[in-house]
Amino acid sequence: MQVGPKLKFYGVGGQDNFFELGGHSLLATQIASRVQKTLQRDVPLRAMFECSTVAELAEYIEGLAGNEISAEKVDRLSDLMAELEGL
């Protein structure tokens, strides 16, 4: 998925370093907010500092998707917790 147009970032390559391009904490906050809104993923601000390139941030976000718990799993865990409380 190409997020550049969605996030209104143009002319930035996947390996370009955010900070070397003049990035700063306020801009990182704005970008993190856009990423969260556009991709529906909770991206902590610290990820913007740890992942200084688009490629690194994309890899981080993909990792978040793999860690999500489905509603079905949440329901099952709730049922198990209720059973444990009843013991």
From TrEMBL:
Keyword presence, Phosphoprotein: yes
UniProt name for this protein: Carrier domain-containing protein
Keywords, ordered alphabetically: Phosphopantetheine, Phosphoprotein
Stored InterPro entries: ACP-like_sf, PP-bd_ACP, Ppantetheine_attach_site
Keyword Phosphoprotein assigned: yes
One Pfam family in the UniProt entry: PP-binding
Residue ranges of domain Carrier in the record: 1-65
